Amino acid sequence: MKSSNIPAILAIFSMCCFICSARNEPHDYLDAHNEARAEVGVGPLEWSPTLAEKEKTVSSSSSSFTLSKDINGLEKVVLREARGSSAEVYLYGGHVTSWKNEHADELLFLSSKAIFMPPKAIRGGIPICFPQFSNHGPLGSHGFARNRFWTIEDNPPPFPTNNLSNAFVDLILKPSVEDLKIWNHSFEYRLRVALGPAGDLMLTSRIRNTNSDGKPFSFTFAYHTYLSVSNISEVRVEGLETLDYLDNLQNKTRFTEQGGALTFESEVDKIYLSTPTKIAVIDHEKNRTFVLRKDGIPDAVVWNPWDKKAKAMADFGYDEYKHMLCVEAAAIEKPITLKPGEEWSGRLELSAVPFSYCSGQLDPQKVLQCS
After folding, report:
1. I want to staple 324 with a disulfide (CB 3.0 to 4.6 A). Which of 29, 109, 236, 251 is the partner?
2. What is the model's pTM?
3. Which amino acids are annotated catalytic?
4. Phi and psi, residue 5, nearest 5°
5. Phi then psi dihedrals of residue 309, to 5 deg
């Protein structure tokens, strides 16, 4: 191809861009782009998330959100609060993958190697562990809710808490025929994901037993929250001191926490039992404190895989363990049992506040007392 023909080719490509963008067909846009690149001897581009799918704004009398698709065709909801905070929720898994404050700082960890292709669970954000946490039962690890497609519910039964913001979405999950083969119980799982006026992220789960055979069922549960931190060695957790915990690295042996604040120098995988309703995660380097408030969820899991396990996971970057910490509101030690018609509710609220926001104090215990 002569160099004199390159401007003409680029002009054709520009026209293709215009036509495809006007029709909002980004895959055609990329095809046209690569055809033009081939003409001038340049290699093709790969499909990129920056080539976004069309967004659709969904509004009702109470809520408003944006619905779009990612590069793999997976639908996601984007919530935006008036002051600038935002959250992203995939219908696959009912999975929160992003939570940003009003400065657009990402507050959740999402692995750069996360796989957004079913049936693989998404690595990071807030996976839903139901009807089983980890290997605490006969099902696959963490149950199946995080690997299923949820549905947006337009008119759910009233939630017990009122939203001061219309930045929320209601999702519902019901078992498929295949689900009933591995866990033979009928249920309705309703999930509300909401942003508060101050940018707080709130998840409310309601699980109802809809068995028609009169049988109860039991389950374990967790909001498997991946927090984004500056450096794991600069983080400490307050609120779990002196509590009993099960150490998953020692065959679930029960111990009592002896030290003060939790700090991290190696792999940790602990289930803290009967925990307080508030837990603080202090990130010294970022001058940020995460405050976790939970209701109806008695336990808390603290997890970081450290370097060896991180390297063994295909969907986890080798050094990414340094920039994440899972602190998970969970119900594990005592499974929740529901009779037909009964409903359980569990709520998690996440706040990210300045490190010394409480009375100018740097004492994280003050955070717990004053928040």
Report:
1. 109
2. 0.81
3. 224, 328
4. -85, -10
5. -70, -30
